[in-house]
Amino acid sequence: MRRSSIFLLLGALLLGLLAVLAARMAINNNGPAAEQEAPKAFVVVAAKPMKFGDKISPDMLKTTPWNGPVPVDAYTSPRDAVGDGERTALREIKEGELLLPTAVTGGAGRLASSTLLGPDMRAVSVPVSETSGAGGFLAPGDRVDVFLTRSFGDDLSYAGAIVQGARVLAVGQTSDTSQSEPAVVKSATIEVTPAEAQKIALAQQVGQIHLALRATGDESRVPIQTATATELFGMRPPSKSTAPEPATPAKVAVRSDGTEVRVVRGTETTSYQVPR
Question: What pTM was computed for the model?
Answer without folding.
Answer: 0.48
